[in-house]
Automatic annotation (TrEMBL):
The lineage of its organism: Bacteria, Bacillati, Bacillota, Bacilli, Bacillales. It comes from Paenibacillus terrae. NCBIfam families: PRK12497.1-3 (NF009150), PRK12497.3-3 (NF009154), YraN family protein (TIGR00252). Keywords: Endonuclease, Hydrolase, Nuclease. The keyword Hydrolase applies. Belongs to the UPF0102 family. PANTHER family: UPF0102 PROTEIN YRAN. CDD domains: PoNe_Nuclease (cd20736). This is UPF0102 protein QD47_03935. It holds the Pfam family UPF0102. It comes from the Bacteria. GO terms for molecular function: endonuclease activity; nucleic acid binding.
Length: 127
């Protein structure tokens, strides 16, 4: 019984995260970004969104929260997470033969309330 509860919580967290990523992608598309990848994975980690804004390749970390009990989404990004995102981006660039392209790391905060999600913050060049 206890394992079922943990799995249910993990599934719920994943579905909330997916909703947040979808809302973030739509938000970016409305600003003229072109989404290239969603949930791109390799050994070093996962990149929530990879997008192009004109000639800039943008790696986006999406943070979704349903409450502020544990701090803001931006506060949840640790030095370890930044390192992981940067390493994952390096792998993506290498695996796709991308060189001499300007890159940037953004963070998008999404507020989840019931079945709705809203982008509350877009930090350009977050780290």
């Amino acid at each position: 019984m206890r394992n079922d509860m943990r799995t249910g919580g993990k599934d719920q967290r994943k579905s909330k995260g997916a909703l947040g990523e979808q809302v973030a992608a739509s938000f970016l598309e409305n600003l003229g970004y072109r989404i290239i990848e969603r949930n791109w994975q390799c050994r070093s980690g996962e990149m929530d969104l990879i997008a192009a804004q004109e000639d800039i390749l943008v790696f986006i970390e999406v943070r979704s929260r349903s409450s502020s009990n544990y701090g803001t989404p931006a506060e949840s990004i640790t030095a370890r997470k930044i390192t992981q995102v940067r390493q994952t981006a390096a792998v993506y660039l290498h695996m796709n033969g991308i060189e001499d392209v300007p890159i940037r790391f953004d963070m998008i905060s999404v507020r989840l309330v019931d079945e709705t999600a809203v982008v509350t913050e877009h930090i350009i060049e977050a780290f």
